[in-house]
Amino acid sequence: MLDRSTPDGARIAERLDREEYAYFTSVRPDGRPHTVPVCFLWDGATILIFSLPDTVKCRNIRQNPQVSFTLEIGRITPENVPITVEGTAALVDEPGIEFMMPAYAAKYAPLADRLGATLEGLARMYTQAIRLTPTRFRLDP
Known about the structure:
There is one protein chain. The protein is of the alpha+beta class. Helices cover 30% and strands 35% of the residues. It contains 4 helices and 7 strands; from the N terminus they run αββββαββααβ. A 7-stranded antiparallel beta sheet has the order 2-1-5-6-7-4-3. The mean pLDDT is 88.
């Protein structure tokens, strides 16, 4: 669990709330990493990602739930360093996942506009929810 009362915890939480995308790494059956950019929503305890169904990352999670998730910043400064989250991922098909959709939509409406897409169209395509439960947070100076 992330301790927001510490300076590092507050810094990590702020970045997880703010960033639009991150790099999600899963492990292929032969042990090779598979890394892709993803949009996400941090709920204060877990990270929610929506994916196209039956992607490499979804197949990888089925056989090995150990993943990492990295916030990249482009230019490293003392105040802005990469953050890595290690954890376990699960494919989510639970009733009620829709309760996260208004927050997800609010976060990504500007991005959809920039892409010339609609949130409704993206929601029809990215139907597989993935929940990442963090086991470790790391600042990478």
